[in-house]
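I have been asked to look over a protein record a colleague put together. The record follows directly below this note.
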Amino acid sequence: MNTFPTDRTLRIGTRSSPMALAQAHLVADLLRKEEPGLQVELVPVTTEADLWQGDLAKLGGKGLFVKQIDAMVQQGDVDMAVHCMKDVPGDVAVPEGLVFAAFLPRDDVRDVLLFPEGSALRTLDDLPAGAALATSAVRRKAQVARMRQDLEVVRVRGAVGTRIDKLDGRKPVDTVLDAMIVATSGLERLELTHRGRQVFTVDEMLPAVGAGVLGLECRDGDGPMTGLLARLNHGRTMAEVTAERAMLHGLQGHCNSPIAGYCVTGQDGRLSLRGMVFSEDGSAFVRAHVRGESSDPAALGARAAAELLGQGAREIIDGIPH
C-alpha cells in the first residue's frame, strides 16, 4: 500500500471564501489525525466566478467555481482540492487525470429561511404579498414559486456571509430584502445557525444534487494521495452521491437547470432516489422516485433520469413551452 510521505507538504487547493476555507481546514484536521506529523498547506484562490456578481449562467455556470482549482491539481500546483459536490458540473465528466478519491459524511441537506437582523417574522407564511425573497439558486426559486407565487424572488449572489450582510443592510444591494434562503450546512460551517428561522423539510424543498457533501479530489495517478484520501471516504455517502450525479448526468443538467435530487439509504441498505425537474417559475414540474441496490448506484441514477425524461424533463430544462 502506498503511504503518504510525512516529509512532503500536502497542498490543498481551495476557494478563498470563509466557508471554503473552513471546509479546507476541516479536511486538513482530518488528514492530520490520519497521519500525525503531516504538514498541510492551504492554497486559497479567488476564482473568476467568485469575482463575478452577475448571473453565473452568463459567465459559464457554477462549474467555474471548481474549474480553476481543478487546473491547479492537474498541473501539480496543489495535491488535492476540496469541492462542494453541488458545485461540480454534472453534464460533463470529471477533468482528465483527476478522481474523487473520497466523500465526507453528508451534512444537513435542508434549506433554511432567514430574516433581517431584529425581524420578528419566523416563517414563509409570515411574509406579506410582494415581499422580496433572496436566493442564488434557480432550484430554490422554482420551489418557492410553488409555495408562494406572490413573492418577488431576487437573485443575490456572493459568499453566504456576504449575502447575510446584504440581508441585514450592511452591504449595498439593489432591492431591500425581506428574507433569504440559504443552505443549513452553510450556516453551520460559519457558526451562524442562530440566524436560521424556518427549516424547510426535503418534501417542501428538495435539495440540490450533491447537497451537503464535500468531495476530495486529486490526481488519479498519485497513489500515496489517493490512498490517504480513501481512508476518509464514507461509503454510504459515496453511493448516494453517485446515484444523484448519474441522474444529473442523464438529464444533462447544468447550473441554470432547476433540477433537484436527493438519495438516502434505507434501513434495509437499499437506495431511495428522488428527482425533480422544474420550470424556472415552478409552474411545470416532473418528479420520479426510484429504489435500488446500493451496489449499483449509477444504474439507479440512470433509471431516475430516464423516468424524468419520459415525463418531459428535457423540454422543461430547455425552456420549451408545454
In short: The first helix runs from residue 18 to 34.
